[in-house]
Amino acid sequence: MKITHAPAPSASLLPLQQHPAYARALRAGGRCVEELCLTSGTASGSALALRRSFAGFPVSLVSRGPILDRGAEQADAIGSVRGHLRGAVIFSPDHPPAMRGLVPLMTAAHVAEWRLHSNAADLRAALRVKWRNRLTRAEAEDTEVRVSPMPADPSHWLFAREAALRRRRKYRALPAWLAVAYAATSPDLAWLFEARKNGETVAGMLFLRHGGAATYHMGWSGDEGRRVSAHTLLLWRAATFFAQRGVERIDLGTVDTESSPGLARFKLGTGAKLRPLGGTWLAPPWLQAC
């Protein structure tokens, strides 16, 4: 496939990691990014590659890509991107690649995708019963919900409290600087949802919009927030907020029913669908373009 340097269409249902807004945030954080447009006859696609160097050897990461459109073949797209980039390339596509020469690195993760309805009644009816009942109880708590653009401030309370929670629970997440850079470079796409009770902030959630989709990026809840099911209320308010603004899907992130069964139930209780991704694969330098 022919490759030119151009961003993907920003209005489509791209994964966050393949959206032009994500590329802008990475560049603002000093990362080297290539946005590639792939064409072959009527077939087309795109790929966002994060380029790095380990011990002087170039390695590129294409997360959730390449994106295929109008009849493009995945093997052609992967081979072309591999041929364009120097060094090794790590692909984490949305679907398992049917291509020789790739070295498997990780098995496929599963993600929860929540399709939104513009009609709030239909959206609420699709919630699972326990989740809907918990939402009803949360709404009865008279918790104040504030919605605002996320400040591009690395000292914001959400980053500090989420980092402390991450250290305590020993889970990994994208660095805070990425969210700061996203808010700075796309201020109309980063949205903060805060729950307040008796004048105090008891929970918060940050969402990053990317075209026709939005991704839940990080969150925090204190004891009082958990008592009043603040995250249930915030996620519901986020869903109705984005649905009213033309967003078709909320990406709730990976789901692991074995290590985090409670979080998995919370995500899937919205009616979100569980979908396997394509695994993580190494395309070595000697792999030839198709």
Automatic annotation (TrEMBL):
Domain BioF2-like acetyltransferase positions: 132-257
Keyword rRNA-binding: no
Keywords associated with the record: Transferase
Pfam family, one: Acetyltransf_6
UniProt KW Transferase keyword: yes
Annotated Gene3D superfamilies: 3.40.630.30
GO MF term list: transferase activity
SUPFAM superfamilies: Acyl-CoA N-acyltransferases (Nat)
Coiled-coil intervals, chain numbering: none
Stated name of the protein: Acetyltransferase (GNAT) domain-containing protein
